[in-house]
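Lecture notes, unit on protein representations.

Consider one protein chain, 112 amino acids long.
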Amino acid sequence: MKGLRTGLWCAAVISFGAAVFAYQSGAKALLALCLVLGVILPGVAEVYADRRQKRDWYARHFSSSEEARSSLDEYALRRLRDEKGAAVAVRELRRTYPKMPLAEAARLIKEL
């Protein structure tokens, strides 16, 4: 996880350095490309790290989706889903387990 994240951050720093040279040489297209990469790459690195952290947390706490489902208050979540909608039920489930991946939470609510 740290290797890819570090690599993306290094690429962002390098692209900002290349932007300085592009500015000095007057290459506006290259300057724009380097600036865009310098802004986007750190964001991609942090999103990747956050998703990986959530996926690892889920794998550590639940060995299968059946185990995750057995730890839920199915009756309360089912009632919440039927009365207020699936989005509210998913939000409540993620409030209980904040590091649960969104796709997994939505799948569990749909299966109730």
